[in-house]
Amino acid sequence: MTTENWLADTRTSYDTVATSYADLLRGAMEDEPHQRATLAVFAELVRNAGGGPVGDIGCGPGRLTAELRDLGLDAFGIDLSPAMIEVARRDHPDLHFEVGSMTDLSLPDNSAGGLLAWFSLIHVPDEELPGVLAHFHRALRPGGPLLVGFHAGDDTTLKTQGYGGHPMNVHIHKREPATMSTRLREAGFTVDVETVLHRDEHRGAILFAHAND
Questions:
Q1: Structural domain of 16
Q2: Which of 92, 120, 178, 206 could anchor a disulfide with 195, C-beta 3.0 to 4.6 Å?
Q3: What is the CATH number for 93?
């Protein structure tokens, strides 16, 4: 699997489901008190670290970018899918969104007061993950917080359909919290908190980390 293939497949898949994805998840945070609390803690950490612009990397239709804005942060969104960005701009015209890849993050060095990667690293293959995390570390100001959410496990599955039955072709890479913590430390982060989420037979995880000097 080459970088070009997985990036192209991910972009095409989310272009295909963008409208349905946004419709299905609109208002979903109202039923997720733990996730809302997690974002509130993240917002406090950003302020405690000095504030500044906060990037929602892999923002999709911008629903969490808007949540961060409502928490008082100067939030913006970046996503690989042009169709997702189009929906985000339509639904949240007061926020800034741009098309971009986390594998070649266009943010200047030390420019972000915080970064959020909410279930957006799940499509990044293991061999590409160190480069992505290096971009996150480069873009963050020293001490700036990083919040990562992802599917917990140690296997990879192929998603061929989703969000209203539309065709997709994306691999979902599950990682154990300890594995992700190791990757973050190798990229120059200090890991502050590991939290495991349980929902039926599915496991998720949330990590809080901050960029070392």
A1: 3-211
A2: 206
A3: 3.40.50.150
How many CB atoms lie under 10 A from the CB of residue 172? 15
Q: pTM of the prediction? A: 0.94
CA 133 – CA 183 distance, rounded (Å): 8
Answer for the pair 205, 194: CB distance below 8 angstroms, yes or no: yes
Q: How many CB atoms lie within 10 A of CB 137?
A: 20
Count structural domains, the chain: 1
CA separation, residue 66 to residues 17, 79, 97, 204 (Å) = 20, 14, 11, 22
